[in-house]
């Protein structure tokens, strides 16, 4: 089960310290103000800290909270009928998750690295969506974006080769995380990448080795990866997209 931190009143929020949660008063009255938009969510959010590999919530837990990554990396996972793990997405600073249509979570959420998240009660978010058109529009666009990402992921898993999958993943990650010189700090390990792309860890390691030999990437160590030739990686992915359109 995920960590059970629940906001019982709108004028208090939990601040996780170690494995415990303390309550402290919010500034002002903590009320939801129509028209304040996302600012109301930020004012009402509690801060929660999770250690590497700690569960944030489990599939089928009551969907009582909505979360936003403040720092670190979170993975969303599901188990296939035969017991294999599928990582549906990696989330980084600024990403919302746990926003469900139903009363329970449809995925597991786990900390890839040490993570700090903001937490808002779902009942508070539901009220804001009813009362504030800007908030409603924001989360409508968020759901539409997540649906499009899920469709893209199905295309990747169904039509792309291992090289194309890894190349596309690295480019997508670079768009989110790339620092100066194209060096990526990888929170996720090779097994996580494999479980996201529907590959084995041996295949991921072999593809990274091949991309390094072709000087498309550099791999200084297991936690860092440099993009040396983004155009070369993009060519691999674009070639797969053209083949899919022609099929």
Secondary structure topology:
Blueprint: E1 12-17, E2 20-25, H1 38-44, E3 46-50, E4 55-57, E5 65-71, E6 74-79, E7 85-91, E8 96-97, E9 108-111, E10 115-121, H2 122-131, H3 133-159, H4 162-177, E11 183-185, H5 190-197, H6 201-213, E12 217-221, E13 224-227, H7 230-246
Antiparallel strand pairs: 1-2, 3-10, 4-9, 5-8, 5-10, 6-7, 6-9, 11-13, 12-13
Helix pairs in contact: 2-3, 4-7, 5-6
How would you characterize the overall build of this protein?
The protein is an alpha+beta fold and 247 residues long. It has helices spanning 38-44, 122-131, 133-159, 162-177, 190-197, 201-213, 230-246, and strands spanning 12-17, 20-25, 46-50, 55-57, 65-71, 74-79, 85-91, 96-97, 108-111, 115-121, 183-185, 217-221, 224-227. The chain has two domains: 12-151, Jelly Rolls, CATH 2.60.120; 160-246, Orthogonal Bundle (Arc Repressor Mutant, subunit A), CATH 1.10.10.10. The protein has seven helices and 13 strands. The strands form four sheets. The chain has a four-stranded antiparallel β-sheet. A four-stranded antiparallel β-sheet has the order 4-9-6-7. It has a three-stranded antiparallel β-sheet with strand order 11-13-12. The longest helix is centred in the middle third of the chain and has 27 residues, at 133-159. The protein is elongated, with a radius of gyration of 20 Å.
């Amino acid at each position: 089960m995920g960590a059970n931190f629940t906001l019982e009143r709108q004028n208090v929020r939990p601040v996780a310290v170690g494995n415990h949660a303390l309550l402290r008063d919010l500034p002002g009255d903590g009320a939801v103000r129509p028209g304040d938009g996302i600012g109301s969510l930020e004012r009402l959010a509690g801060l929660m800290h999770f250690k590497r590999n700690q569960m944030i919530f489990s599939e089928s837990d009551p969907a009582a909270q909505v979360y936003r990554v403040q720092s670190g990396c979170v993975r969303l996972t599901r188990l296939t009928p035969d017991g294999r793990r599928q990582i549906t997405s990696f989330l980084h600073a600024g990403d919302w998750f746990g926003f469900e249509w139903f009363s329970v979570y449809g995925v597991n959420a786990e900390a890839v690295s040490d993570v700090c998240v903001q937490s808002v009660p779902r009942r508070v978010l539901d009220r804001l969506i009813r009362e504030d058109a800007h908030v409603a529009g924001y989360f409508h666009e968020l759901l539409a974006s997540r649906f499009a990402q899920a469709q893209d992921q199905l295309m990747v898993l169904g039509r792309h080769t291992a090289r194309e999958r890894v190349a596309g993943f690295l480019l997508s990650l670079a768009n989110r995380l790339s620092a100066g010189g194209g060096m990526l700090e990888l929170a996720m390990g090779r097994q996580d990448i494999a479980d996201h792309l529907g590959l084995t860890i041996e295949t991921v390691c072999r593809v990274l080795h091949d991309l390094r030999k072709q000087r498309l990437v550099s791999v200084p160590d297991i936690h860092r990866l440099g993009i040396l030739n983004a155009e070369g990686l993009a060519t691999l992915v674009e070639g797969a997209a053209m083949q899919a359109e022609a099929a």
